Amino acid sequence: MAYDSKTLENFRKAGKLAAKVRDYAKTLIKTGMLYVELADAVEKKIFELGARPGFPCNISVNSTAAHHVPLEGERLAFADGDLVKIDLGVHVEGAVADTAVSVSIGKDEENEKLIKASEAALAAAIKLATPGRKVSEIGRAVEQAISSFGFRPIKNLSGHLVDIYDLHADLTIPNFDNKSNEILEKGMAIAIEPFATDGDGFIREGDEISVFRLERPASVRNGREILEHIASEYVTLPFAKRWLARKFNPLKVNLFLKEAIAKGMLHPYNVLLEKKGSKVAQTEHTILVSETPEILTA
Ligand code: CO
């Protein structure tokens, strides 16, 4: 597969900006800061740089592996000893770059070791992001790297192909040897995201849902203007309930979401929790598959 030069340029731009915002986020995070303040700062920065969020900034702490997107008015704050995953995306005309970093609040050996394990796994995986490579080989490298630190990868979370206005396109990049025969093709943009845990290596879905994606548009009785806004602003990329609650009457947003979910229009992203309540670290880059893999979010 091959993108035209304009699209490639958009992917590269999105990647550079995502890296810049990720590194900026790392400088902001501190004890006592609210999760929502960090998410807001990340998203504000993306707009300032002339791009758009590819998805709402995820702030997932300790045993929450992913998909905690702060709600409006949320009071959760970072505390010493927290292991924080900041997962963010930037898109330029639909070309999405997805990147994540883990940060330990204060000194914590276990946090730092988990972070190192996920970083080492990502580094090993990136080297294999070459044309013709089986995705299962990447998974094996991820698992080996994480195991060498005495931890486990999370097996039911994986990296993914990214495509235009499509964050999780139809190719899985596993975090273990899943025996898949699917192979990488030159020019694919893929997100590789190893998760390391000192738990068993599985997540479960929690009840909390604060992020959605428009999947099957249909007519609604409540909040037609909200639906129009989603379709034009976010298209098929994920959006936060918090974003809607700031733009529209929050009661109306609730009515709209209730109806749209009941009608199967929205894909909900439940919060993802490590099954045993163990800590999780994640590191992620978006890579262009090539003989020399190109890290778009370096
Ligand atoms: Co991702």
Write structural notes for this entry:
The protein is an alpha+beta fold and 298 residues long. It folds into two domains: 5-205 and 273-295, Creatinase/methionine aminopeptidase superfamily (Creatine Amidinohydrolase, Alpha-Beta Complex); 210-271, Arc Repressor Mutant, subunit A, CATH 1.10.10.10. The chain is built from seven helices and 15 strands. It has helices at 5-28, 35-48, 109-127, 135-147, 224-233, 241-247, 250-262, and strands at residues 52-61, 64-66, 83-92, 95-104, 152-153, 159-163, 166-173, 189-192, 195-197, 203-214, 239-240, 266-274, 280-282, 285-288, 294-295. The two termini are 23 Å apart. The structure holds cobalt (II) ion.
- Give Rg in angstroms: 18 Å
Supply the number of helical segments.
Answer: 7
H and E string? HHEEEEHHEEEEEEHEHHEEEE
Mean pLDDT: 97
Strand proportion, as a percent range, falls in 25-35%
Bound molecules: cobalt (II) ion
Count of spatially separate domains:
2
Quick recap:
The chain has 298 residues and is an alpha+beta fold.
Question: What are the salient characteristics of this protein?
Answer:
298 residues; alpha+beta; Creatine Amidinohydrolase; Arc Repressor Mutant, subunit A; four-stranded antiparallel β-sheet; globular; binds cobalt (II) ion
